[in-house]
Amino acid sequence: MPGISVARFYDELADDYHLVYEDWNASVRRQGDALHALIGQDRARVLDCSCGIGTQAIGLALRGHRVIGTDLSPRAAARAAREAAHRNLTLRTAAADMRRLPFPDGRFDTVVCADNSLPHLLTEEDVVTALAEMRRVLHPTGLLLVSTRPYDDLLRARPASTPPQVHRPADCADARERAVTFQLWHWHDDGEHYDVEHFQLLPADGEWRVEARRTTYWALGRDRLIGLAADAGFVGLEWRTPQETGFFQPLLVARVGEK
To answer: How many domains does the chain have?
Structure first.
């Protein structure tokens, strides 16, 4: 089952996930500010249904929103709650599959599914199921925010790797605290799915320790994802670019519609 491998991938990554970012704390604040501007109201009831270690959820809580975070990875969700508590924020988290959200109908004003999480679902059926669940837990005037990689560009280029990212937070002068992250991509014969080998070089007693983890994604183009979101009942569908929003990935913005 894809869900089992994805949960394992993020369980194994949870302790070191912040090292993917040059400066995780700065990213938390920046992403929270960008999503807050799109939400357009104060103290919204927000579900982050792929919260990871809390990058978006904590950023939104810092802006005063009432956030609940769920993630397929129990270890990532637990870390998100700890990170929020360290910042004197309230963030309830739980392990949950976005295809089966453990909440009543109409509970939230906004659902966030960010950081290329939705494309871990590898079939149209699973994607529509997840989007329909997000719609179900939204208030009738609710807002959906989904971010993915820029797949239209990536499908044309089909890159074999990502550039190395060096973790170098502004408050870290010690080079021994730095880490390097990069990915190797292996495209399937269908030209849409791809396996990722995710490498981290981590400092360890003057040497480097290498962690390698593997997972699979579906490169969902913009029109394809809009069509699936419409099938799930969303309306007002539009893509917003990073240049427009200040968010680091393209964002699909949608509203609950009447079926």
So the answer is: 2
pLDDT one-digit tens code per residue, 110-119: 999 999 999 9
Same domain, 107 and 234: yes
In a shared domain, residues 94 and 174:
no
> Is the separation of the CB atoms in 236 and 255 below 8 Å?
yes
- For the packed helices 124-136 and 222-231, what is the interaxial angle rounded to 10 degrees? 60
Of the candidates 128, 123, 111, the one whose C-alpha atom is nearest the C-alpha of residue 230 is: 128
Express each pLDDT in 149-158 by its tens digit: 999 999 999 9
Task: With residue 175 as reference, give the H or E element that holds it.
Answer: none
Q: Do 39 and 103 fall into the same domain?
A: yes
Residue at 184: amino acid letter: L
Identify whether the C-beta of residue 127 lies closer than 8 Å to the C-beta of residue 97.
Answer: no
pLDDT, tens digit, for every residue of 100-112?
Answer: 999 999 999 999 9
User: Which residue, chain included where needed, has tokens 């360290």?
Assistant: 86
- What 3-state class would DSSP assign to 152? helix
Q: Is 2 inside any structural domain?
A: no
How many other CB atoms are found less than 10 A from the CB of residue 121? 24
Based on the domain organization, do 76 and 157 belong to the same domain?
no
What CATH number does residue 82 fall under?
3.40.50.150
